[in-house]
Design a protein that fits this description.
Blueprint: H1 3-7, H2 11-19, H3 25-43, E1 46-49, H4 51-66, E2 78-82, H5 109-116, E3 120-125, E4 137-138, E5 142-143, E6 145-146, E7 149-153, H6 159-166, E8 173-177, H7 183-189, E9 192-195, H8 213-218, E10 220-225, H9 228-239, E11 252-255, H10 266-279, E12 284-287, H11 293-304, H12 310-316, H13 324-334, H14 341-352, H15 357-377, E13 381-386, H16 397-402, H17 409-412, H18 414-421, E14 426-433, E15 439-445, H19 451-464
Helix pairs in contact: 3-4, 6-7, 9-19, 11-18, 13-14
Length: 473
């Protein structure tokens, strides 16, 4: 089979072709390796590879097929993994120089699940330092560029994953999300992404590990790729659960209004209007703002700032005598510190927004009340939100918008923070392009248990609108 047709397949199609003996796993892995070697230098998405090991595993997968043995639904399919997820015999650095020689001894729980399903890991993809930013750049590996326009951000923190999948560098991939970290890169790079609901997928083996219960409910690991059908397959593998069937006719679809009092590009507004026109012909559809939308961004920021991100700071400045403030200003003057200013500024921000013990108790009460209300509200509802106010911006601009001392995150983060604060599953699907010809996506959300409905609606939108389009030079 031709290399071009191989790298254009999603994981489901590749698995089928390999199991039907239309191609070998070795052919598939070889095609992706060649494609990565040709295209990665310009975007800097994959930062550590295991190509030699992947080819050995592919050979073994082909031998198994000759014996009529199939390891699992991803038998012989090459995938990529975000750098923050432990893979045995690979580094997990968090983009920090002082961790560059640390090799993981064990696989993260989700990596074990993927390997047991037959997936072959090609390598690991770039993140911001400690995955603590919505743009992907760090001192150890440098910056990841958006393939659609290398002067623009790939998003973060799963930015390397988004950029690699956009060029077709893997059949599918794995990201993580505590503040839009799957959805920003999916949106900016024009790939599909799925953020699972709270507690549905194990985060054991993710670095840094979240231990605060409020942060834990916001944090998840999930799939990214080229098709909604892949997101369904991978989610079932990662969660170990089967989906309860849901009929879309039983759901009301609520699309966030375009005239909402938050930034939204004209092109995004037009796309939301087109979605409404399409969906209201088939399903009960209206424009509405869901409960707790307006205070979710503040709650998200306060939860992220609990204890002033003390554990992140300790990890960042491990064995480093420089103080976070000293480091930030020294970096601004000399560019010679070991900590990227995105990270030191984010830590300083967490200190500024650190909630008091009294405020934490108020947040806990709000969450308890909101969880109960939203479980009822979303039982038969699907929400459609933008991901960000525009397509990918020039490098550094998203960071300035979200991490400004003027609290502009209150304007820019509600669309993504909502699913994190309330622990909702969220499917990101590309639906068009903006004024700069950069991909634009929407996210479809509901409550845990309604994943089947999300995937059904996602497939419908994927077919009618843009869906995944591979970047070609």
């Amino acid at each position: 089979m031709e290399e071009k047709s191989i790298i254009d397949m999603d994981a489901t199609a590749l698995a089928s072709s390999i199991q039907n003996h239309d191609m070998t796993s070795v052919e598939a892995v070889t095609a992706f390796i060649k494609h990565i070697l040709e295209n990665n230098p310009e975007i800097n998405a994959m930062v550590e590879d295991r190509f030699e090991k992947a080819l050995e595993e592919a050979t073994e997968m082909d031998s198994m097929l000759e014996r009529n043995e199939i390891k699992g639904p991803l038998h012989g399919v090459p995938i990529s993994i975000k750098e923050s997820v432990h893979v045995a015999d690979m580094k997990t650095t968090g983009g920090l120089e002082h961790r560059q020689d640390l090799i993981s001894k064990d696989d993260a729980e989700i990596v074990t699940r993927l390997k047991n399903a037959g997936a072959i890991i090609l390598g690991k993809t770039n993140t911001p330092a400690l995955s603590f930013c919505q743009e992907t750049e760090n001192k150890l590996y440098g910056r990841t560029n958006n393939p659609w326009d290398v002067s623009r951000t790939a998003g973060g923190s799963s930015g390397g994953e988004g950029a690699l999948l956009a060029i077709g560098g893997a059949a599918a991939g794995i990201g993580s999300d505590i503040g839009g970290s799957i959805r920003f890169p999916a949106h900016f790079n024009g790939v599909i992404g799925f953020k699972p609901g709270m507690y549905q997928v194990s985060t054991t083996g993710h670095f840094p590990h979240v231990i605060n219960p409020l942060q834990e409910r916001m944090m998840t690991v999930g799939p990214m790729g080229r098709s909604v059908q892949d997101m369904r397959l991978l989610y079932q593998i990662l969660s170990g659960s089967s989906l309860e069937q849901k009929k879309l006719q039983h759901f009301r679809i609520e699309i966030l209004p375009g005239n909402i009092d938050y930034p939204l590009s004209q092109k995004t507004k037009e796309i939301l209007d087109q979605l409404q026109l399409f969906l209201e012909k088939i399903y009960s559809t209206k424009r509405a703002i869901p409960p707790y939308f307006k205070n979710s961004a503040l709650i998200w920021q306060e939860i992220m700032s609990i204890e002033g991100s003390k554990l992140i700071e300790l990890e960042a400045y491990n064995n480093d005598r420089s103080h976070v403030y000293t480091s930030f200003f020294k970096e601004k003057l000399t560019q010679r510190t070991k900590i990227h200013p995105y990270l030191s500024w984010a830590i300083m921000g967490a200190k500024m927004f650190r909630p008091s013990l009294k405020r934490i108790r108020e947040i806990e009460a709000t969450l308890e009340q909101g969880d109960e209300l939203l479980a009822s509200y979303l039982k038969n509802r699907l929400l459609i939100f933008p991901v960000y106010h525009s397509g990918a911006l020039p490098h550094g601009q998203v960071f300035k918008e979200i991490f400004s001392i003027r609290k502009t995150f209150l304007q820019y983060m509600p669309y993504t923070a909502y699913a994190n604060v309330w622990g909702l599953p969220s499917l990101t699907v590309p639906v068009g392009v903006d004024e700069n010809n950069m991909p634009v996506s929407v996210q479809i959300m509901s409550t845990n248990g309604n994943e089947d409905a999300l995937f059904r609606l996602g497939r419908l939108i994927e077919k009618k609108f843009r869906g995944y389009v591979r970047f070609r030079k």
